[in-house]
Amino acid sequence: MLLKVRICCKGITNFEISSPKLESLKVIGALSWRLDESRWFTLYLRTIKTLCLIASLLPCKDAEIATVTFPTAINLRVIELYDLSVACAEQLAFVLQLLQHSPNLCELKITALNACMCDITTGTRLLEDPNSCILKQDLKILNTVMIEGFSGSIPEKLFVKMLLSKSPALERFLIMEYVDIDTSEAEFSSYISESLKELLRFPRASPKAQIVCVEHDDTVIGLFDYIWF
After folding, report:
1. In percent, how much of the chain has pLDDT > 70?
2. pLDDT confidence of residue 144
């Protein structure tokens, strides 16, 4: 009868569960196993509606790119990914596969990691290469995207561009910019203005897609606290 599982602790290894009615899976602790080594993860993709993961569980560095074979996550409506670096080719490939196999996805939330030591050119090439695992079909009902900690790197901009071009039902796209502690208010306002101008030039598959850029703020309650542009 278990419907929800939330793990936010350390020291768990070889974690497996059996719950045919599971609807929500949230794993955000510092666990010592990876999803590409977990048989149960792909099993529950067929049933869950909400998936929240910390990116340290995703394959990165010394792992083969996109090693997990995904079933179609037919019921998955919400995906949240924490500490994700789109500059990491292995993590990016994993995420792209997950999105590709989530045809009924409605909401996507990403907390970006800006301190990743991965080669930034690798993730960039993966996004730019038409023969890579970039999304080959539209995210037909994705309507809300939120990215926290956006630093404006080339891989991040390409990732945003890809989402805008592959989401025909998109309505809201919130980008919360990462701000250096030494940045003045005037400098940040100028940066936000230029960043928004660039993002607004990206082609959008949805005529209803509205984009807003704001300073990252941990006190924000939700997407709908903002005026959309």
Report:
1. 64
2. 97
Please, which residues bridge with residue 108 across strands?
79, 145
Listed in order, strand segments (DSSP E) in 39-130 are 50-54, 78-84, 107-112
| Three-class SS state of 5 | strand
Looking at this protein, which amino acid is placed at residue 160? V
The two beta strands, 107-112 and 144-150, are: parallel
Q: How far is CA 197 from CA 25, 69, 103, 118, in A?
A: 37, 38, 30, 28
pLDDT-derived band at 201 (thresholds 50, 70, 90) equals confident
Please say if the pLDDT value at position 40 is more than 80: no
> Taking Cα atoms as reference points, which of 84, 104, 83, 103 lies closest to residue 94?
84
List the beta strands (DSSP E) in 85-165: 107-112, 144-150
Q: How many residues does the chain have?
A: 229
| pLDDT for residue 103 | 94
**Distance (Å, rounded) from C-alpha 136 to C-alpha 99?**
10
Which of 216, 222, 65, 60 is CA-nearest to residue 149? 216
CA distance 30 to 57: 8
For the record, the structure tokens of 11 come out as 């020291």
Strand partners for 211: 173
Cα 116 from Cα 91, distance rounded (Å): 11
E strands present in the chain: 4-7, 24-27, 50-54, 78-84, 107-112, 144-150, 172-177, 210-215
Q: Angle, nearest 10°, between helix axes 154-165 and 185-200?
A: 40
